[in-house]
Amino acid sequence: MAQSPSPERPSPTVSPSAWLMLALATVGFAVNFWAWALLSPLGPRFKDDLDLSSFEQSLLVAVPVVVGSLGRIPVGALTDRYGGRVMFPLVSAATVVPVLYVGLAGHDSLTALLVGGFFLGIGGTAFAVGVPFVSAWFPPERRGLAIGVFGMGMGGTAISALTTVKLVDAYGTANPFLVCTAVLVVYAVVAALVLRDAPGRAAPTEPLLRRLADTLRLPLTWQASALYAVAFGGYVAFSVYLPTYLKTAYGLTQTDAANRMAGFVLLAVAMRPVGGWLSDRIGPVRVLSGSLAVVVVSALAQSFTPSLAPVGTIAFLAMAAALGSGSGATFAFVALLAPPERTGSVTGVVGAAGGLGGFVPPLVMGSLYGAYGSYALGLLLLAAVALAALVFTETAVRHAATRRVPATQRH
Q: DSSP character for 108?
């Protein structure tokens, strides 16, 4: 049975400071994700300018994803130790360097772009800072909604999608990178001055490697990682590869494809807090199951490459809503069950799994299209993976949730 707080219990109070910290963390997540996603909208342009193959273009947009994902593991553990007050300004300031490099000097060759993209991955680690930071400010009964609201910061990819190509066309390649740099610097300064860790936050004293080892022994870590690899991984994959897919499969212009990708991202972003809110009320397992079922049906429908109006559009929007709500539900599950002193470490591993889940599909899609001239097989693989995750949710995850959540937090 899925769990959620008892409806008879009074709603816990949340301090105004908690909402302020949530707002600042969400802005920081969005700004860093904006930087993380700067290369994706320019992928088709770099493909034409540098004569890249489909695989090379896919690799270019996927490298920041994998680095940002793996980097969440140590960053999450460091957040447990030093807190978001230290880590948010640090990650934001560190992301400035690769953004400036790509904008000013690192966009004239594939090698330079891959180097810049590698270090752009730093921006993707901000997620592992925000989840434990926000979670500590909110009681368990409100964490699903709070983490879902924080998750809206993934809309930073929409900022990139909506502005990058237009700024390059109007002012040159360096412009969007310079604008993003300025915003990162402002946020780093504000975060350093204003952010505060939750009162009573207990910093672990164990060495980093021991904490990571203990985290990897938690069944929750692996269960949530598998689910997030599908839910958030699917979102990341489409957010970086959808412009290429739409341009290749439907012949859309680069601007039109980027705008449609932004619509996909915005809907997924809007649904993330909805997934968290529903998880607080009906339990994260039910939300995850419903979301995965929608992904299965939508991916199967899109595998036939139907016309964009209306079937293709409906299929992609349904997937966006499902992937967003499923991502929110996964971290409602984590926030409810993770030991408080290990929330950052669990978040880092689970976040890494989600990012890595987004690294593989663009490479697979590019390779399959290069080999067969069709994306159908790639979408069928997505449907199969989502179906396997649905079965896993309804068996192992449901059983584990029923066993581990205290009776006081069930219906």
A: S
Q: Write the CB contacts of 86 (distance below 8 Å, at least 6 apart in sequence).
A: none
Which helix (H) or strand (E) segment is 239 a member of?
Answer: helix 219-250
Band of pLDDT at residue 345, cut at 50, 70 and 90: confident
- Alpha-carbon distances, residue 175 vs 40, 105, 203, 295 (angstroms): 16, 12, 41, 37
> Exposed, middle or buried: residue 382 (CB in 10 Å: 0-12, 13-18, 19+)?
buried
SS3 category, 81: helix
Single-letter amino acid, residue 108: D
Whether the CA torsion 150, 154, 158, 164 is positive or negative: it is positive
d(CA 406, CA 408): 5
Cβ(286)–Cβ(300) under 8 Å? Answer: no
User: Measured in Å, how far apart are the chain's first and last C-alpha atoms?
Assistant: 9
Q: What angle do CA 17, 349, 154 make, to 5 degrees?
A: 55
Which residue carries 């449609």 as its tokens? 260
Residue 153 to residue 34: CA distance in whole angstroms: 9
Cis peptide before 89 (omega within 30 of 0): no
- pLDDT per position as a tens digit, 208-267: 788 888 888 898 899 999 999 999 888 878 877 888 889 888 988 878 888 888 889 889
Model confidence at 9, pLDDT cuts 50, 70, 90, reads very low
Q: Which residue has the tokens 């302020």?
A: 20
- The answer to whether residues 153 and 26 touch, using CB atoms and an 8 Å cutoff, is yes
